[in-house]
């Protein structure tokens, strides 16, 4: 069982996407960053940088004590190695994925994050900062767009690099970006948002926070052999659990 300390941010979405893709059983523990819950001692034991997400793997592959991991990139790498999925085993394939994961962690995420801060959230408008981070975000979109030319996914096959980058592209409007300017990226984005596990991950986000953070799928898609519980019933249950400081257990969907 994986304990996931989570809130509805791009970094949080990365991990729910992986867990839904892999079908790993996990327990969702909401950490409401709007209420400062990321500073509580119970959370800091697992995430000393007081940032979500963090996980505790109670069943590590070495059979030892539970393992705590913080930082979303490290979590994705750990889960990929644990499951043997979404990270190639060859030296070249693994290197390809890891460099784009690090690119997201060191570039796309931080720059888009600053973009979010100075554009809609800063208490006063600072034109220089807004221009700087909107332009840098656009440059990074261009890097990813060129990378995706002739490829379905960032490293060729679907991987943790795609899971890491996608949630940071979802709020492209807030970042002052138009996906029509990046046709290869847009094709990849449309493919990603239709994946059933990605759809479920954003449904979970809406259940936890009541936000409208999910990009609406362009069309309804079959669940690829997985069954999800009725959304209204689950939403009420998760909202009630979150309000009470409890958790929601997500289990591997049963195959039809």
Give me the CATH superfamily of the largest domain.
Glutaredoxin
Structural class: alpha+beta
Most strands sheet: 5 strands, mixed
What is the CA–CA distance across the termini?
A: 23 Å
In one word, what is the shape?
globular
Q: What order do the strands of the largest sheet run in, or round the barrel if closed?
A: 4-3-1-2-5
So what's the CATH class of the largest domain?
Answer: Alpha Beta
Q: Unreliable runs, pLDDT <50, ≥5 residues?
A: 211-246, 252-256
Explain the overall architecture.
This protein folds into two domains: 2-86 and 221-250, Glutaredoxin; 91-193, Glutathione S-transferase Yfyf (Class Pi), Chain A, domain 2, CATH 1.20.1050. The protein is 50% helix and 8% strand. It contains nine helices and five strands. The chain has helices at 10-22, 41-44, 72-83, 91-121, 127-147, 160-169, 183-193, 196-209, 231-243, and strands at residues 2-6, 26-30, 54-57, 67-70, 248-250. Helix 1 (10-22) runs parallel beside helix 3 (72-83). It is globular and about 50 Å long.
Question: How do you describe this structure in short?
Answer:
By secondary structure, the chain is of the alpha+beta class.
Based on the model shown, name its key terms.
Glutaredoxin, globular, Glutathione S-transferase Yfyf (Class Pi), Chain A, domain 2, 5 strands, 256 residues, alpha+beta
């Amino acid at each position: 069982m994986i304990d996931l300390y989570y809130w509805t941010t791009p970094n949080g979405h990365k991990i729910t996407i992986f867990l839904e893709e892999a079908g790993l059983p996990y327990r969702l523990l909401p950490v409401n960053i709007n209420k400062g819950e990321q500073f509580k001692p119970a959370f800091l034991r697992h995430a000393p940088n007081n940032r979500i997400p963090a996980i505790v793997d109670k069943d590590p592959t070495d059979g030892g004590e539970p393992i705590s991991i913080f930082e979303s990139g490290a979590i994705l790498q750990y889960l990929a190695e644990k499951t043997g999925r979404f990270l190639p085993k060859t030296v070249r394939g693994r290197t390809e994925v890891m460099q784009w994961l690090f690119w997201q962690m060191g570039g796309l995420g931080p720059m888009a994050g600053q973009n979010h801060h100075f554009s809609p959230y800063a208490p006063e408008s600072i034109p220089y900062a807004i221009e700087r981070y909107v332009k840098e975000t656009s440059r990074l979109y261009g890097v990813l767009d060129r990378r995706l030319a002739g490829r379905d996914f960032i490293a060729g096959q679907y991987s943790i690099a795609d899971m890491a980058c996608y949630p940071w592209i979802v709020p492209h409007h807030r970042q002052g970006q138009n996906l029509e300017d990046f046709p290869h990226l847009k094709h990849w984005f449309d493919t990603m948002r239709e994946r059933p596990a990605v759809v479920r991950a954003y449904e979970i986000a809406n259940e936890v926070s009541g936000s409208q953070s999910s990009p609406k799928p362009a069309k309804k898609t079959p669940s690829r052999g997985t069954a999800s519980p009725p959304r209204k019933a689950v939403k009420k249950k998760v909202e009630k659990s979150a309000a009470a400081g409890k958790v929601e257990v997500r289990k591997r969907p049963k195959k039809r």
